[in-house]
UniProtKB/TrEMBL annotation:
Protein name listed in UniProt: E3 ubiquitin-protein ligase NEURL1B
Organism domain of life: Eukaryota
SUPFAM superfamilies: RING/U-box
Upper classification of the organism: Eukaryota, Metazoa, Chordata, Craniata, Vertebrata
GO biological process: Notch signaling pathway; ubiquitin-dependent endocytosis
Protein species of origin: Antrostomus carolinensis
Amino acid sequence: ERRSVLAITEPPRFHSQAKGKNVRLDAHSRKATRRNSFCNGVTFTNRPIHLYEKVRLKLVAVHHSWSGALRFGFTIHDPSQMSSDEIPKYACPDLVTRPGYWAKALPERFAVRDNILAFWVDRHGRVFYSINDEEPILFHCGIKVSGPLWALIDVYGITHEVQILDSMFAETMTTARLSTARLSTCLPQSNHDSANFNNNELENNQVVAKIANLNLSRVPGLATDNHIIPCCPNRRQRAQGVPAFLDTDLRFHPTRGPDVTFSQDRMVACTNWQESNRTLVFSDRPLHIGESLFVEVGHLGLPYYGALSFGITSCDPSTLRTNELPADPDFLLDRKEYWVVYRAFPVLNSGDILSFMVLPNGEVHHGLNGASRGMLMCVDTSQSLWVFFTIHGVINQLKILGTVQSSPVTISPSGSPGGSQYDSDSDMAFSVNRSSSASESSLVTAPSSPLSPPISPVFPPPEPSGSKNGECTVCFDSEVDTVIYTCGHMCLCNTCGLKLKKQLNACCPICRRVIKDVIKIYRP
């Protein structure tokens, strides 16, 4: 019956009218490209999608200058009835907080060029997706299937261009096969994901409980009724490349999130995998310039995903109180101190060893199991800097192995130590803040806004030819027409420049120097 439906149904295309202002379609409406910025890429299919019909998307172009990836899902609202003014910048959270819209983010590790994403909804209202026809992943529940459903696709973040392929129909997910389906429980990858995550948290918890009952019995040594899984799982032998002798004077600071427990020597931080919300932990002293910090990750090995965030701050943790520590470290960006947060780590396994080192020029480099992975971010080294982490999901343990003071590092012209080519496989730092104005903090915390060292600023790559003066580094919509005094950087539109100037301790988004004035530039 499904094959006969497919034979008489035209393959889906992108809706020619209902799309974000940065979306450009090809002549056949089969390919959608986002022009400029990281947002305003919301699109829909031109016809309803049948139950079990796979919407198949090929990721044609992926640009790693942003953070976050494609969002996708379904809606009961006919795109033909939408005006362009009704389509917001983001599918998550702008659309999913409205009735009749369901969408979530594709994990960034799957957002690889030429990957083929297929997603579909079954008669029970469950959404599954697969990558390159591999095993399906349970993605969403609770979709209303009593009426027509249109596919919702947000060409967001690192996803730059997608192409709709011909449809196929999925097999029915039997109970036996559902027990082997993985569950997509990725934590929010950006502040724009947070509302979507919270909006679906209850639903996800219910699904987690159901899948856990099916899968916990498969994990050796775990009973199905075990609700608190001990931290400190068995760890593999220490990876090669980690120094044999490490200083152990750096520990976790006593100030920590309420959902974290420390070992007696404060070298190990553990969480409960089901109740790990407020899990901020800090180092008990600043990290020295040229000093490498080594930490080991503990992972439960269950079929769920975990998340690890890393950050650097000038805030002394002893000045913080436990009740001030949020679940999402982005909420700390409204404080007056210097904060940098990084999220986009690759999938980590139990026993993986991460290293972090701050170079004299402000570059923060990291390594995995003794292998260098390149630069994570650039920071202001003119002040003392503490490191911090958040631990979520089945990444339930973080152990400080120790530190080692490196010999002076020679910085090559390319910015990587020892002349090695920049080889980081991840995105830039998530967000930076030097302002204490909560109402205006969004001006300087846009996702993956270009960040440069405090010395010798590095400007964003050249804009596409369609943008005359480049995009404002704050709103990513308007053209740059304002210069900052005294540093001279021209990176803002006049509207954002005036708002930024009003902030207390306002500083340039590029070099962090204090803003004394903003001057509008008029071109012939």
